[in-house]
């Protein structure tokens, strides 16, 4: 697509707004995207993932309706069963809120981005520009220009949310640009599940951004379950900033979409900050899933941990690019990274590229990557005990990822993930 | 009465090399047979052929198990039909908990035998009976299958599986290797407890020592891919004395036979 085309398309599709700063931001992002376009594979970060399949859908954003943020409006449209039996739930459909969260405890605000912009834009005062690490990247830039909605979760200091927050993003067509923000005050604690679900076989696009700010001692657990449709492209960028003693746990379960990219930029910028980023990707047919992580130890006495494991069948293609950066004088840090992939067929492929960039001397860092087949001896051992082959294979697959799933702290959420993983293995 | 096992003129290859070269062996119900022989003779190969491992290709001959053509059964079907292989080198399965493994195996076998599966409580009750006599700790049951087990623990774990699955034919491949005398006694007691008129055993060992504790009805020497000699339990003592020297080199003409 040419530059002129991008400009014309973007001009047509920018959401309207009465907020001058937002109009400026959107226009600025549109101009920037028009000049940079989509990254091609000459860009190192995109070396393994071809974005051509999303070109045609980029500007197919639906119309913006001013009343879509009315929380009590369309609960009837919300027919997808919840993953968690006990949660505060919010539902987006093709990029717009259709059901808002109810009965939130004191000190917790959870609203649609469109609603916040209409009613309460001052919440966003310190976060208009977004997190610097991703601000100028092409896909977050496009999200900035075209996003119509998303969730904004604000926790007052010290608030502990007992029930998890479950947010469903269901999609069926076109392009959706959810833009989400989590602001956790000092010592606040919450678990958030982002559930992306496809309801069609269409080659729709989701290009989402989630930004997380954890103040001193806050503890955020964020789980993403990606079950977009078999024709879909799912692009997600997560950026986080952790202050002193803040803890962020992320788990990415990648099951769906034809093309998936999950990019995480995590800045550990206060002493004692701790990030644990883990994930499981289960791919078959011609699915492609690219996990790219940039872990930045900005100051000393910070810890990070990454454990990503995948099982690939048929002609699936997995990518893991993980980089740990330790800034000068960030002494006494620990950063660990592990990527393991099980290849079930000769035609499945994994590209794993762990990277360390260490500019301090008192650090403990490790990284490792392995890829292998299902253990023939193990399979024979199980079958020799009477366990049918299919069941034996499932036991070994489950064993391969059990440790990674073990990083999921919330039992109910782990059960949900276990169930989804078991279904995948059995099908 | 049909025999438990009849192996006739069995030829089998591994990776294109013929390892078993016309092996014949018959085991009656309730009998315990020992197979001895030098390293590399093909003892483990025989055990894998019996359990149906991929890569162990039978090129000719037959095996009849309880009146049935064994080659028609898949690995798991052989287990369900009552063949149990105690591995020379039990496989470690990190991430598969021992308890889950044992329960899955027992229920898979019960299901295939047309019997009711056990629920968690029934299973634990049955498991306890055996873990006690085999001195298997709760800690072992919590760990991944064979992960971090000592040599003795691995072998006791094999006997535990055998006890749970109640086979008709147990093939025990060097169950004694790497065991000290106390561990050997525990394992032998476990095996002897399962001896009975309807259960047969094929005990593969390199050393006579095990046969002091598991006393066989017959002893065979496997050399050059076939049964080179058969005798009573005194043959084991003779081999202990003389070693396998007389079987070490292929006698002239044996390849052509
Ligand atoms: N997987 C294999 N690939 C190739 N050769 C093998 C394999 N397994 C065993 N062999 C060979 O087969 C022969 C018999 O081995 P094995 O049955 O293990 O003997 P034993 O158990 O009597 O010591 C040996 O020469 C061994 O090297
Ligand atoms: Mg052997």
Structural class of chain A: alpha/beta
The termini of chain A sit apart by 39 Å
Low-pLDDT stretches of chain B are: 251-257
List the ligand species: adenosine-5'-diphosphate, magnesium ion
Strand order of the largest sheet of chain A: 2-1-5-8-10-12-14-16-18-20
Dominant shape of chain B: globular
Class by SSE composition of chain B: alpha/beta
Please report which band the strand proportion of chain A falls in: under 5%, 5-15%, 15-25%, 25-35%, 35-45% or over 45%: 35-45%
Question: What are the main properties of this structure?
Answer:
heterodimer, A: alpha/beta, 2 domains, ten-stranded mixed sheet, 21% helix, B: 257 residues, alpha/beta, Rossmann fold, four-stranded antiparallel sheet, 10 helices, 28% strand, binds adenosine-5'-diphosphate, binds magnesium ion
Report on the architecture of this protein.
- The complex is a heterodimer of chains A (427) and B (257).
- Chain A is α/β, with parallel strands linked by helices and 427 residues long.
- Chain A folds into two domains: 3-268, no CATH class; 375-427, no CATH class.
- Helices cover 21% and strands 39% of the residues of chain A.
- Chain A contains eight helices and 20 strands.
- Chain A has a ten-stranded mixed sheet, covered by helices on one side.
- In chain A, a hairpin with a 2-residue loop joins strand 1 (87-93) and strand 2 (96-99).
- In chain A, helix 2 runs antiparallel to helix 5 and helix 7 runs antiparallel to helix 8.
- The relative contact order of chain A is 0.09.
- Chain B is of the alpha/beta class.
- Chain B has one domain (3-247): Rossmann fold (3-Layer(aba) Sandwich), CATH 3.40.50.300.
- In chain B, 37% of the residues lie in helices and 28% in strands.
- Chain B is built from ten helices and twelve strands.
- Chain B has helices at residues 43-51, 75-80, 98-112, 120-133, 138-142, 151-165, 181-193, 210-213, 234-242, 245-248; strands at residues 5-14, 17-27, 32-36, 56-65, 68-69, 83-86, 93-97, 144-145, 169-173, 200-205, 218-223, 226-231.
- The longest helix of chain B is centred in the middle third of the chain and has 15 residues, at 98-112.
- Chain B is globular.
- Mean pLDDT of chain B is 93; it is low at 251-257.
- The interface between A and B is medium-sized, with 23 and 28 residues.
- Bound molecules: adenosine-5'-diphosphate and magnesium ion.
- Magnesium ion is lined by residues 43-44, 88, 173-174 of chain B.
